[in-house]
Structures are given as C-alpha cells and as structure tokens.
Amino acid sequence: DGWISIGLQDTRHVDVVNQNEMGQADYIVAHFLSSTSEYDITDMHLDADTNARPSEDAVQNIDSKLVTRLDGRLVAEFGRMLDTRDSQDKMIGLESKVLWGVKSSGVWPAYHGETRGSVAVFWSQPSSCDPAEVGPTTWCNSASKDFCLDWSFNPEMTTIDFKLTGKTTGTLALGFTDAPGSMYPADNMICWVGGDGAGVLKDTFISSYEAPSEEGDIQDLTL
After folding, report:
1. Which pLDDT score, from 0 to 100, does residue 18 have?
2. How much is the pLDDT for 86?
3. If we measure between CA atoms, which residue out of 120, 90, 100 comes closest to residue 25?
4. Sign of CA dihedral 197, 199, 200, 206
5. Residues 190, 170: Cα–Cα separation, whole Å
6. Is the peptide bond before 131 cis (omega within 30 degrees of 0)?
7. Residues in contact with 182: Cβ distance below 8 Å, sequence separation at least 6, in sequence order
8. What is the pLDDT at residue 53?
9. Coil, helix or strand for 17?
C-alpha cells in the first residue's frame, strides 16, 4: 500500500491567509484501493484553510492515468488540462506552489511527518532554460471573447510579448498584482487608438480605485 500526492496552491497562500500550509489546494493523489487491490489516481480538493482531509472532486479531471512500482518506488503518471474550468480545481498558470507528500504505508492522507514539503514551480520554463521552447499561449475571458490575451517569450530579448484583443472602441488594459482578487496595487498597461489613428501605449501604476498614474513609472514597454 502507501501513497504519493501533489497539491496545487496559490504561490502567496501563506502570505494571504497566514494559517495552515495544506489548506485551499487542489490535490492529485495516487493511492492503493483496498476494494480493488489496485492503485488509482484521484482528483481531490480542500477549500478550507485547515489541515483536514481533502474531499474527492465531483468531476475527475485526470486522464492517461498510470501507476507503477519501480525499484521500490511508486510512480504516478497522468495528464490534466491547464484550465479545467472546474471550481474544485486550480488553474495551472505560469507558476504554482506545489505541495508534495509521500508515505510508504497507510491510507492517504496518513500522517507523513518529514516526508512532505512545498516548492515554487515555474511551469512555463523548460528544463533547458531556453525560452525558445515555450510556445505562445492564449487566454480569453469567455466563449464570446470580449477580452483575449496572447503571450509568448522572446528568446532574443529575454522579454515577454503580449497581444491584447477586445471588443471596444475605447481602451484595453492589462495589470499585474501580488494581491489576488484585488485591483491594486498593480503595474498597469493601457492602450488605445489616438485621434490620428496611431496606437498609444502607457506604462502606469494603480494604488487605488482612482485613475492610474504615470508619475515615476519608467516606460518599459514597446508597441
């Protein structure tokens, strides 16, 4: 028997809720099923910020499951969509905090003491550290595509290229914040078409719900 698991958690989880390490995470667990005497991989979640036992997801968003034993080790292989659009799953973006745990015996999640930990994983960065190996990525807010964001890494400039598309005759904006769920503080980029038909792009900063400010913000953008 025994089990091995990973959990996907917001990278700022401890800073945000400042409580338990295991809570508010999406879990994938490879474990032994006594009912079938076989191993399986289960999609689970823990919404509360506690060290309680995670619950099995209503929808199992895992495919290509394979569990084997090799040289005394438990090996679990599986596939999952980056964004399952399931409220019980965490979307896998550029970076995640990955919780890991393993136990050589017992039923998951039997207390695993020292055989657990966490690590920040940058999913977009290939093992060779060559940005050229990272392909373009697209995200849209809905099927109607009112707002879409495309991005890709530029291997020569070691920068990231963005393309914003929206159903508007006004402005488009993209912001980066370390406070999930909040509009500010944020590094904000705003673009629009000027009266002469030329595109305008501004690098700004938001510190409140007031209009973004350019003051003191170096223009680190090219159009």
Report:
1. 41
2. 92
3. 90
4. positive
5. 10
6. no
7. none
8. 81
9. helix
pTM of the model: 0.53
Using DSSP, state whether 213 is helix, strand or coil: strand
The letter for the amino acid at 107 is V
- Which of 58, 63, 62, 56 has the alpha carbon at shortest distance from 33? 56
Phi–psi pair at 101, nearest 5 degrees: -155, 150
Helices and strands, counts by H and E, the chain: 1, 14
**What residues in the chain have per-residue pLDDT under 50?**
15-20, 129-135
Buried b or exposed e, range 39-61, using 16+ CB within 10 angstroms: bbbbbbbbeebeeeebeebeebb
Token pair for 137 = 């990525």
* CA 75/CA 30 separation, integer angstroms: 9
Say what the pLDDT of residue 82 is.
84
**Residues whose CB is less than 8 angstroms from the CB of residue 176 and which lie 6 or more positions away in sequence, other chains included:** 186, 187, 188
Give me the helices (H) in the chain, please: 13-17
Q: CB–CB of 109/101 below 8 Å?
A: yes
Burial status of residue 203 (CB atoms within 10 A of its CB: 0-12, 13-18, 19 or more):
middle
Instruction: Say which DSSP state 71 is in.
Output: T
Q: Which tokens hold the place of 213?
A: 């400010």
d(CA 70, CA 140): 41
CA atoms within 13 A of residue 9's CA, in its CB half-sphere: 27
pLDDT at 58: 95
In angstroms, the CA 174 to CA 43 distance is: 32
Q: What is the pLDDT of residue 106?
A: 67
